[in-house]
Specification:
By secondary structure, the protein is an alpha+beta fold. The chain has 2 helices and 8 strands, in the order αββββββββα. It folds into 2 domains: 32 residues; 136 residues, Immunoglobulin-like (Sandwich). Strand 1 and strand 2 form a beta hairpin. Keywords: Membrane, Transmembrane, Transmembrane helix.
Amino acid sequence: MIGSELAIFVSIVSLIIAIASFIWNVWSKFIYPKPRIRVYASVMSVYSGEIEDEILVVSAVNFGPIEATIRCCGVKIIDEDGREKTALMNPLDMYPLQKRQTIGPFGGGLPKKLSVGEEFSLYFHYGSNVKFIDKWVDCYFLSDTFGTMHRSSKKDAQRIFDKFEADKANGFRFQN
């Protein structure tokens, strides 16, 4: 009797696990799917004739399974005390036609609806007066309408800071 009771118990537990995983899969895939958005941040050089311009670019690619709306862009900063702070960034509006104008954190084409597979880039001023290129920057992020913060990698933030420090050391003339 012990062997048959054990087999029934294991079968019931297996059935419960199977039902729970089925419900979870239906919930996460069909009822309430969330988009996966990959965020990249980098400093890019723009050459137009003889003039070189440097800009900070934060790009997003929507990997689906549904479309998403990007609301704002920001930066996560870890201060000396280890506390995490969040700051919104003001993208350049109508770049490259106007290279210095921002209209607040919801400029630069925000909010932007991203279809699956679509890419969107935001452009930011890169100069000596920029407050969000710092050694304490943890990552750059984009926030969507689900309230999810899609983060860039820490390596992206470190590369941007290293380039900024190298440019300052080499006497790069920042456009303020």
